[in-house]
Amino acid sequence: MIERRAEPRLCLPDVTGRILIDEHGAVPCIASDRSWSGIKFTLPSTEDVPDAFILTIDGAGETLVCRAAWRKDDQIGCIADALVTEWP
Q1: In a 3-state reduction of DSSP, which class is residue 6?
Q2: Do 14 and 28 meet the contact criterion of CB atoms below 8 Å apart?
Q3: What per-residue confidence (pLDDT) applies to 13?
Q4: Closest by alpha carbon to 83, among 69, 62, 58?
Q5: Which CATH superfamily is domain 10-83 in?
Q6: Count of other CB atoms within 10 angstroms of residue 80
Q7: Predicted local distance difference test score (pLDDT) of residue 5
Q8: Splitting the chain (88 residues) into consecutive groups of 10 residues, what average pLDDT does each group show?
Q9: Which residues are CB-contacts of 25 (< 8 A; sequence separation ≥ 6)?
Q10: pLDDT score recorded for residue 2
Q11: Between 20 and 30 A from 53 (CA), which of 5, 47, 61, 82?
Q12: In angstroms, rounded to a whole number, what is the distance separating the alpha carbons of residues 48 and 36?
């Protein structure tokens, strides 16, 4: 199998987080691996997740602005465009 990733990935020990769908809704997720610019996570369903979204990572205090790069029924690989350090 040929490795096509531009950056090495770090396996994560089931780090939990939330995908903010809109100002009223969020979906829980579990991150499984991460690189400098991307992250893969599992969630109950990807159907309601928009192409661009906010991802919060529990315990790390991170909030990321993300774009979906690919998706399956219960997984999304995303590109982290920006780290949000404070809310307006």
Answers
A1: coil
A2: no
A3: 80
A4: 62
A5: predicted glycosyltransferase like domains (2.40.10.220)
A6: 17
A7: 60
A8: 64 87 89 86 91 88 90 93 64
A9: none
A10: 57
A11: 5
A12: 26
